[in-house]
Amino acid sequence: MRLTPLRNPSTRPWTGSARASHGKEKEDQRQRQQPGVEAQSGSLAGGLSVHPIESERLRLRAIEPDRDAVPMLALLNDPGFVRFIGDRNVRDEAQAREYIALRVLHSYALNGFGMYAIERLSDGAWLGNAGLVRREGLPAPDIGYAVLSEYAGQGYASEAARAVFNHARTVLGLQDLYGITDLDNDVSAKVLLGLGMHERGVIQLPGIDSPSRLYATLGAAEV
């Protein structure tokens, strides 16, 4: 369950921060470097590998351009994603691959973490994505999550967010964590409050057009 840069000549070069009814995953293009984490499977950009994170019903694994372009395209155009996170203007598989390479793989290479595909353990269904985002304007990573509308209302976003939260704390050693949501996204707010985060009010972050509601773990630095 650890994520750490590994150098392997046979491996090849792998989001988000936007608002969803599923969470806020609107990525800032200026991500700051964080300590890497150990891993042994799931080769990524530049030889970085990530071991899947598992919870009771879910597996969170590295997102790959070829493997995940089709479901990622569906997620980016999901009505809930577009409403609460934003329109990424990704309209076909080629653009989805490019999105994954430029945003997801880039975060892995730069930070040692990023957004991960959420799969259901029982049948391998692709449900959405969840992970950590490093963005300008926040002193530590924030938790992002987005679930396809057809799988909403089943607790998957909360379970995935909890898995990311626990991994960040116990494996990555990140005690300070944040979360941001659209001002009208009450469902996402409940997910963050369920993690024990506290509301910090409304904030305008660089790279995000509209204000966001900010949440943070107890003791996290003021923004």
Automatic annotation (TrEMBL):
<dbReference type="GO" id="GO:0016747">
    <property type="term" value="F:acyltransferase activity, transferring groups other than amino-acyl groups"/>
</dbReference>
<dbReference type="Pfam" id="PF13302">
    <property type="entry name" value="Acetyltransf_3"/>
</dbReference>
<feature type="domain" description="N-acetyltransferase">
    <location>
        <begin position="57"/>
        <end position="198"/>
    </location>
</feature>
<protein>
    <recommendedName>
        <fullName>N-acetyltransferase domain-containing protein</fullName>
    </recommendedName>
</protein>
<dbReference type="InterPro" id="IPR000182">
    <property type="entry name" value="GNAT_dom"/>
</dbReference>
<feature type="compositionally biased region" description="Basic and acidic residues">
    <location>
        <begin position="22"/>
        <end position="31"/>
    </location>
</feature>
<dbReference type="InterPro" id="IPR051531">
    <property type="entry name" value="N-acetyltransferase"/>
</dbReference>
<feature type="region of interest" description="Disordered">
    <location>
        <begin position="1"/>
        <end position="47"/>
    </location>
</feature>
<dbReference type="InterPro" id="IPR016181">
    <property type="entry name" value="Acyl_CoA_acyltransferase"/>
</dbReference>
